[in-house]
Each structure stands twice: as C-alpha cells, then as structure tokens.
Amino acid sequence: MKMGGSTAISAMAMALFLSLPSGIALASMPLTETIHMIPENEVELNLQEQFIQLDDYYRRDRLAAGIGVLPSISLWFEFNLLTSGIVPPGGSEVGDLFVKLKFFIGDYLASRLHAAFLARFRIPTGRNAYASGSWRNLALGKNELSLGGCFRLDFLDPLYVHLNTLYTFREGDAEDFYGGFYLNIFEKETWSKVFGLNWTQDGTFLQSKRLLNDYLSFSLAINSDGLYPVIPFIECYTSIRLSRSSGSLDSISIEALGINPTLLLSAGARYFFTEGIYAGLYVVVNPLWQKGFIRMIYGIELSFQF
What we know:
The chain is mostly beta strands. The protein contains two helices and 13 strands. A twelve-stranded antiparallel barrel has the order 1-2-3-5-6-7-8-9-10-11-12-13.
C-alpha cells in the first residue's frame, strides 16, 4: 500500500525515535554530556544547586530547560544565578547563559556504540573574567563555542561508558568573536574568505591568531542501571590549551589559561522516581587543589521530563 508524503515522514520519524538509545542511564552528568535526547515535543526541566569552593565559598543556582525539536535533535537553555558566601549569603549576580544543541548521529558496532554531535554556545551575560576577579571560574563573560562528539559504549553490561571530545573556540580579550564570519553572499570578500572559514585569510573566524586561547576537553564517565532505581556514576574531566604561546592572560586562573591543564573528578548517584523524574547528589573535586580555581563542588539536582 502506498503511503502519502506526511504518513511516510511520520513513519520515518517514529522508526528513528525507536532506534534511539533510551533508558535511565542516558541523562547527562555534571562533567559529561551524554547522548541523551529528549523525545520529540517533550520538555525537560533540570534544577541544580551547587555549593562551590574556590579560594572562597559560593553558591550557583542552575535552571536548564530543554525541548525535543525532532526525534534526533534536542535543544537546551541553561540559566545561572551566582551568590557569594553560603551562610549567610552575600551578594548575587547573573552568570552566563548557555544554549546547547545535540544531534543524534547513529548506532554502530551492533548497536553497542552510540554517537551524537554537540554544539554548545556560551552567551556572556556574566561578568568578564579577564577584567575582574569577581565570580571568576563561575562565569566567563566571554563568548565560547564548543563542538564535538558524545559517545556511549555498551560493552560492559550493566555498566555504560560515556565519552566526550570537544573543541572550544573561546573569545579573546579584545576580540569580536562572531565578527570573523562573512555572510553577505553579494560581497566578493565573503567568497574569498569562505564565509570566515578560510584560515589563510586575515580577519576570519579560523585565523590562527584567533585560535591561541582555544582548548580541547575530554571527559570519561561510567554509570550503571544494575541498582535501579539508584544510578551511581563516576567521572573524570580534563582540558588543555593547544597553543604554547604565552600572553598577558596566562597569569589569570581560568581553565586552559593560568590553569592548564585542568583535572576534575566527580562521583554521585541519582534516584529515579520514574524514568522521567529523578533526584541526585554529587561531588566534584580538583585533586590538584589549584589556587584561584575550583577545588570542590557539592551539588543537588532535580529533573523532570514531561
């Protein structure tokens, strides 16, 4: 029987949705993005409260809201409110805003390897960490774009191994981050600079001098559904700046600048009331205990999907 165009599209979308890896082990963790996708037209809300030790103590309240745009595309927005001190609390300030797009790519190796592509944008609504020490390492106040892959390996049932490899383009001190793109198709310069992607041309987004403070990050996490409804997890995160050139910002205690490389470890557990509702506790520790950088994070979270 021949199907109409809309019926065929609906059937293809349903087939794709059913092929997506699902289950409680998918939810992203504090240091690791996973291949977790929100079902189409559903909404996810995640609330976190973090107690953070740098040289002083702070609190960060996070609200993340996501939507399943298509079976293979999910979109999230994350808002942060920063507060100095814990008891009693001090002043508060808005942190950076994040926008995250995730695209499910597919299953491989007899459906034991799953892959997704991640694009994460930092929008600098927080204070500029280059110019001010207030809220440094809680907000950057500069644009960033992180691109890369999220993977899940199912070789050790009931253990799941999650991997991230991300490249982060970070805005420099006096840089127009998105000014390196050329989008006017009626100008010759747009074509010679390949919309800003020609690294051999001055002023493009990929010009070598604009990449000097970019960095690579890697994350590895293991969790298990063998104790469901409790899902324990452990994580390791590291990042490193690729450029060996030094500059005036290298003395600032920021990830992949004055703190290079970074190393963070995390452990925690979540309790799933249903497959779409869970509460969690976790701790993040910096074993290198660097001055001016994150040393400990204690977090609690609550997540709903509906």
